Amino acid sequence: MSDGPGARAPRRVEAPPLSHDAAGGGGTPARSGSEPSAVSAPLHRHPSLGLAFAGSQLRVVGPPGLGLLVDADTVAILALCDGTRDLAALARDLQAAGRWPGLSPVGAQELVRTATARLEAAGAFVGEGPEEPPPSTRGYGHPAIHRHMLRDQARTDAFKRAIEAVVRPGDVVIDVGTGSGALAVFAARAGAARVHAVERTGLAAIAREVAAASGVADRVVVHEGEARDLPPAGVQADVLVSEWLGHMAVTEAMLPAVAAVRDRCLSPDAALIPARVTLWAAPLDDAAFRADGPAYWLTRPYGLELTPLLARELERQATRVERLSPASLLAPAALLYTIDVQHADVAELTFTTTLTFVAERDGTLDGLAGWFVAELAPDVLLDTGPHAPETHWRQTLFPLPPRPLARGARLEVTVECLGPSPDGRWGGPSWRLRVSVGGGAPEVFEYATW
Ligand SMILES: C[S@@+](CC[C@H](N)C(=O)[O-])C[C@H]1O[C@@H](n2cnc3c(N)ncnc32)[C@H](O)[C@@H]1O
Question: Final residue of a domain: which of 131, 154, 171?
Answer without folding.
Answer: 131
